[in-house]
Each structure stands twice: as structure tokens, then as C-alpha cells.
Protein: Phosphate transport system permease protein
Organism: Brockia lithotrophica
Amino acid sequence: MSDGRKRAASRRRVDLFRELQEKLGFAYLAVSVALVLLIAGAVYFFIFYQGILPFTRYHLSLGEFLSTTWSPLGSPPQYGALAFLYGSAVVTLGAALLATPLSLGAAIFVAEIAPRWGDRILTPVLEILVGIPSVVYGYIGMRLLVPFVREHVGGIGYSLFTAILVLTVMILPTVTSVATDALRAVPTEIKHGSYALGATRWQTISRLSLRAALPGLLTAVIFGMARAFGEALAVQMVIGNTPRFPRSLLDPGATITSVITMSMGFAAEGTLEYYVLWTLAVILLLMSALSIIVVRLLGRRRVYA
């Protein structure tokens, strides 16, 4: 065989090997994507299937589910979850209202006022706060905040208000980090143009940077609210875990996550109480999906585009 034929045969083998590599790589990626979609679809299907059984198999009405009485051992049993829905909404909104101003101020300081030494100080602190397990937050809240609220604010200490304080500290790092990234994403040229027109630093921050970064700042708040809405252990340790509908922030209460974690181990499989807990899990899943959709929609908005 001549040298030319040998080189041609060698090139064909190389081409075939590359083609085989591309096909194997494509097959690997296709299988990975299919598995991810299959797992996500299976999780959604299983939770939704379990969650609709109280209404289809046991004929629980929506009015009964949205009542304020939760008494699985009563005669007759009652499965009103409105108190848990209310508790989750109140602690989530309360934590967001307290954490947003603090997080926004810290983000502005790091991104606009003192980007060098402020970043060196605040970033490690945020990383430490993110790395603290939720049970530690709950234990600190139970040992420090509960007695403080009981002695200086009112009530028995275990309350919605205490849960709000714990969640505020827990979501501060998340909201601050995302808000800082949003402010840093504002093009420097826009800020220089504002200074060139005679604007002060505060005018540039308040009238330009904050407006340009508004979608990212809203995303930060939504991420924090999603974290607060889905938190279970820390809230469970300080909220009081009572099924009664709270009349004030100083009353004990319960959230969707706390009642699921406390009741799932005692609810017999196949009972109405067992499936009602899955219905509450469906609500958590829908809230998570809604937050993701809102974040994606906000991510498409570019005020400075």
C-alpha cells in the first residue's frame, strides 16, 4: 500500500473516531436531559396524585379544607388548613418586609459605597451566615429570642413574631448576595454618564442604579421569600406549633412546613390525614414553581438594555 493510501486510511479512521465521539457525547447529553426531565416529572406527578386524593377519593370539599379547624382525632375529624396557610403567608411576608431594607442597604454599601474593603468584610460574613444549618438558627431562636419576646414584647414567646425574626436573619444573606450582584451588573458607563451630567453619588444610586437593577432586586426578594416559605425546622422550633388560628403576631401558630414535618410521621398511610398532608405539599410545590416563573420573567427585563 502506498503512502498516500495509508494517510487516507488513517484520516478515515480519525474521522470515524471523531464521529463516534460526537455521537456518544450527544447520546450522553440526551440521556442526561431525559433523566432529569423524567425525575422532575415523576416527582410532580407523584405529589399531585397524592395531593388530589382527599378531594377525589374521600370527597373532602374545598370549604372544609379552607376552614380554620384542624382536628384529625376529632369526631368527626376536621382538616381545615387555613391556619397553616395563614401562618406561612404571615411569616414569609413579615420576614421579607424586615429583611429587604436591611439587605438592600448592605448591598448598596458593598456595590456602590465601599466596593473594596466593604466586600472584604461583608462577603465572608454572608458566607458564614449561609453556611449555618437551620437547626442552629432554630436553637438560637428558641434559647434567646423566645425568652426575649416573652419578657419584653408579650405572649408566651413561641409565636409568629419570633418565627419572623428567625426567618429574617436566615434570608438576609440570600437577599443581600443577589441584590449585590444585581447592582454590580449595572454598566459602569451609565454611572459615569450620570456623574458627567453633574449628579451626586446618591442621585446616581437612587435614580439610576436602583431603577436599572430593579428586576434583579425583585428577584433577590423573591428568592428570600421562597427560602422563608419552604423553611421547616427553624420555624418549627420557635412558632409554637398549634393548629389554632392565630389572632395576633404574638400568638403561637403553625406553617405548612411545620405541620407536615410534625404530622407525617404519625399519620397512617392511606388515611385522609395522610393525603391532606400531601395536599399541603402540593401547595408548597406550586409556590416554588410560581417563584421560579416570576424570577425567569424578571430576568428577561433589562431596564438599561
User: Anything to note?
Assistant: DSSP finds twelve helices and two strands in the chain. The chain has a mean pLDDT of 86. The beta strands are 70-71, 78-79. The radius of gyration is 26 Å.
